[in-house]
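Protein Entry — a single chain follows
Fields — amino acid sequence, structure tokens
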Amino acid sequence: MSLPFQIACRPPHLVASFDAPQRMLSWSLTRPGFQVARRVAWLEVRNADLPASEDPIDSLNRLMADADLVDAISLITSRDITRHHLAQSEVEGVTATALATVGLSNGERVGQRLSEPVWLPGTINILLHVSCPLSEAAFIETLSIVTQARTAAVLDAQVSRAEVVVTGTGTDCIVVAAPQGADGARFAGLHTAVGEAAGDAVYRTVREGVAVWQRDFALLTRQQASAAE
């Protein structure tokens, strides 16, 4: 597999670095919306890293600055970042590459906030890169397809919390990246090469991540039950 970025996993950071600046779209806490960047960085945190007296965005900015990652599009998670997952798909010359961390212990069902306390925070963070430039419309459409593929993977795994099948978590984040350039895809629907490649790569990445999280979560639950006996 030839990747469009280099991956460095040095806890608490997971960094995807591109050789050239890429155009990106996300709802990252520190650099949301359309941006141009060379790096996407995950930060693994615990409650102690985010003091209640400090705004979470200020905390994240401080932690990323300490790691010399201010320029990166930042993602935040409590999931073990060594449990990251990767998949790639090529359709009609368009290559889509997905990198994700997957946790679902604070899962939610769309349109229905759950009241059950979260005892082990988790989230789904996804970077999806496509090999061709994208128009603004195609970026937005690709973002919707990544969301759809993530949700399909979670639903197919039938993960539930408080006896409700979840569709994602309350803190999921997605970054879509593509090369800069004017002559790119104008649209990226499910019937296009971009849409098919993006959906396949994200679905397989998240599906694998959910399976690994389910095994980890079951083991931790058994260990906690044994400790309480």
About this structure: The chain has a mean pLDDT of 92. The longest helix spans residues 193-228. The domain at 6-224 is CATH 3.60.70 (L-amino peptidase D-ALA esterase/amidase).
